[in-house]
Design brief:
With about 90 residues, this protein is mainly α. The chain contains five helices and no strands. It has two domains: about 1-55, no CATH class; about 60-90. It has helices spanning about 1-15, 20, 25-45, 45-55, 60-90. The longest helix has about 30 residues, at about 60-90. The N and C termini lie far apart (about 50 Å).
Amino acid sequence: MLGFFFMTVFMFAIAIPYDHWTKRDNRMGFVIMYALTFFFANFEPNATTFVVPAEIFLARLRSTCHGISGCGWKGGSRCRSLRVSLRCTE
């Protein structure tokens, strides 16, 4: 939760005094705040999304789940394409 917390803090620190960050003298501060937000985005949310499952689940299970997910998206896109083509020919 530390990464999410600091991402929120830095986003509010960028958003609330936005006029302050748009001035030419304060651009380096804006870059630093944005860099810290990006660091904390990779610090916890990306680690828990990508690194932890790679360590916990076997490669065979991960590849099966990726295949099921890809199949679902492709099936949905085929249904949507068919629906759009039928609607366009009416």
